[in-house]
């Protein structure tokens, strides 16, 4: 069996053919460049994990300086936008139900009187928790807000009612992203997601397109070998992937001002590994799918867990063990840790290595499957 | 005698369906053989097995002296295979397609070779045109030229002239005979009787079985058919009347003429006797044509299969 021997001239033949075809297919080429830019701008600007200016309705059954202070404090916090002040708790509820407000803050009857008497009245905050993540930051801020708001009112004889400071200080440092800027997390993550989408898709249709057009039979009738066809078809996509990565990183640096603390060459090397692993997946799909439609469906079957289970949007450690296990298999999970680590934390080779070898393992597995799945006959 | 193709017991199954059943083919070097049979009879499958595109389930033998089951790499290098459907890259230009083939086979003096081929094809001025923009006849000529680029010793052509106009068909066959004269062996599948008649021998397969083989004249003789033609205005109306009458195997039109064929001369004569007196009809005996035999073989195979 000399079926796996590699010759340069046949690889070159396939490579040239692919380059010409890619150059002619303006639509796909445009998408390969357009997709990253568009997605980066849409997701980079649209996704915000720390939502602010959430619509809030206050129902004040006890007007007075205290309730005024609380309402003002809410309004000033930037988390809440008071869209309506009413005196009917029922109306506040209706607004929550209709979705006109995400929060309803109710200051009950006799709030001021009970407060002064030291009866600890309740300040009721109702939140629309259909989306638990949306309001969590805002809700966490409320108790502190209310306490601070009251501090200026609770003076003189009322001073004992004010909350006492704790006996110790809690010092919180938000390392690597002190301002909690979502883009610092999302934009580097998008590098992984965009590459996953375009690289897998572009490669997945590589062989299926030949099969659909009937040119596959011709390719097989010539002495071209599987590995020559595979490497020849994948190589142009490596360049496209490198170009996409460069484009995304440039936009990340100069449009989204993501910090670039770590080594760019380490990032380039790990990106190349990631891209190659993805092309392995794409090529495997290519050998299984019967037509381009199936190739597309399989790509999305791979893409969805890559977005959901990789820690791109949802915190990885928040997932149950089995989901984390699936996530650990996907190359993007490791790549996200690498790219965020390098850019935001300044991680070096030593810190990055534990994420590199799983990708190498994945690449090796995907490549083996792709080569063995490649049938040299039409059976 | 040296055989370019010499295989025995060629068999291919797709699931439970037997596509090719125990077919023997032995084509001497330099001859042109025609491969006939109705659609789905197993012609394409046989050709694909010969050049290693499909794995045979059974059978042994050689193609160009190589074991066709294990040495498909070597066979591919010396065989030109022209697929039924145009299978070159429509988004590559004519020149780029030829260059690709030249690179794959690692042919020396690539540029000159491609230039010469374009010259011979008469496509120099259109070399930058995309292959997908060519008409059917030109596509077929380009495909043949591309298959011949690496100077193969064996050409496998799968219905190369389907959908090609009569003039282009004629030119194509002139080219085939020229190649054959140069010592290249050709196996060509076709539905056209005139093309089959230009072959040294024909192989007829039906439902995966080889049902006849030999030179055209011998196949016609061996069929044992007796054929009468009926000409005249009323001939058309007669077809349904005669079908199923004693001694009549089948009735077929050739242009405006009616061919009535059977095996038993006496019965056939008796059946036709009442029409002899009709002045509007001319009835005469003729040599059965290859197409008559083709229809007969197909009918018989269909009856055998059902």
Automatic annotation (TrEMBL), chain A:
<feature type="transmembrane region" description="Helical">
    <location>
        <begin position="298"/>
        <end position="316"/>
    </location>
</feature>
<dbReference type="InterPro" id="IPR013525">
    <property type="entry name" value="ABC2_TM"/>
</dbReference>
<feature type="transmembrane region" description="Helical">
    <location>
        <begin position="27"/>
        <end position="47"/>
    </location>
</feature>
<dbReference type="Pfam" id="PF12698">
    <property type="entry name" value="ABC2_membrane_3"/>
</dbReference>
<feature type="transmembrane region" description="Helical">
    <location>
        <begin position="264"/>
        <end position="286"/>
    </location>
</feature>
<comment type="similarity">
    <text>Belongs to the ABC-2 integral membrane protein family.</text>
</comment>
<keyword id="KW-1003">Cell membrane</keyword>
<dbReference type="InterPro" id="IPR047817">
    <property type="entry name" value="ABC2_TM_bact-type"/>
</dbReference>
<feature type="transmembrane region" description="Helical">
    <location>
        <begin position="238"/>
        <end position="258"/>
    </location>
</feature>
<feature type="domain" description="ABC transmembrane type-2">
    <location>
        <begin position="148"/>
        <end position="377"/>
    </location>
</feature>
<keyword id="KW-0472">Membrane</keyword>
<feature type="transmembrane region" description="Helical">
    <location>
        <begin position="186"/>
        <end position="207"/>
    </location>
</feature>
<keyword id="KW-0812">Transmembrane</keyword>
<keyword id="KW-1133">Transmembrane helix</keyword>
<dbReference type="InterPro" id="IPR051449">
    <property type="entry name" value="ABC-2_transporter_component"/>
</dbReference>
<feature type="transmembrane region" description="Helical">
    <location>
        <begin position="356"/>
        <end position="374"/>
    </location>
</feature>
<protein>
    <submittedName>
        <fullName>ABC transporter permease</fullName>
    </submittedName>
</protein>
<keyword id="KW-0813">Transport</keyword>
Automatic annotation (TrEMBL), chain B:
<dbReference type="InterPro" id="IPR017871">
    <property type="entry name" value="ABC_transporter-like_CS"/>
</dbReference>
<keyword id="KW-0067">ATP-binding</keyword>
<dbReference type="GO" id="GO:0005524">
    <property type="term" value="F:ATP binding"/>
</dbReference>
<dbReference type="Pfam" id="PF00005">
    <property type="entry name" value="ABC_tran"/>
</dbReference>
<keyword id="KW-0547">Nucleotide-binding</keyword>
<dbReference type="InterPro" id="IPR003593">
    <property type="entry name" value="AAA+_ATPase"/>
</dbReference>
<dbReference type="InterPro" id="IPR027417">
    <property type="entry name" value="P-loop_NTPase"/>
</dbReference>
<feature type="domain" description="ABC transporter">
    <location>
        <begin position="5"/>
        <end position="232"/>
    </location>
</feature>
<dbReference type="InterPro" id="IPR003439">
    <property type="entry name" value="ABC_transporter-like_ATP-bd"/>
</dbReference>
<protein>
    <submittedName>
        <fullName>ABC transporter ATP-binding protein</fullName>
    </submittedName>
</protein>
